[in-house]
Amino acid sequence: MDTSLADPGLWRPLAALILAAAVVMGSPGPSTISVTAVGASFGIRRSLPYTAGLIAGTAAVLLAVAAGVVALVTSIPHGALVLGIASAVYILYLAWKIATAPPLGGRDGPAAAPGFLGGFGLAVANPKAYVAIATVFAGTTVIAGNSGLDAAAKLALLGAMIVLIHVAWLLAGVSLSRWLHDPVSSRIINLVMAAALVVVTVVAFL
Asked: Which stretches of the chain are DSSP H helices?
């Protein structure tokens, strides 16, 4: 098999995988909306630990999907339900934290933004992540005839997409932070972002 970059048999599946990842994994969900809301409410520097946790947790989900661990967890009685409840509780806490965050200009000290463990925990318990990653991973073949190389290529590409998607949503949220110095605008934006986080989480669970 010709695996040169000029071979349409290689770059077409690659393009299909990247497009599918951008649409399915990059669409609004608990992880992407939460990193946007945290970026808007706390600024880029204080949001980096949470973003890193989301990326690490989503990468762990990717590895679990590739290794078949997801099927094992969901086969355990009430395993998926426990993960879902844990995720829902933390998301509600995060939504409350975002909704009640004070204006950026009115904070006396560093804001207590969610940290790495919070992001990691939400990512590994995010129901949309498992469905989206499993759909993209199983639905696309990049290198036909070599399942090991195909899996490795998809792991590398989807890992890169996880980073790019979360960074893009973080920057989108940070772009809103300039409006958060005004108390009225800050309260409106924070409430909208918190509500959006709850809504997309409900949709993901349904």
From this structure: 8-20, 30-67, 69-75, 79-99, 116-124, 127-139, 147-174, 183-205
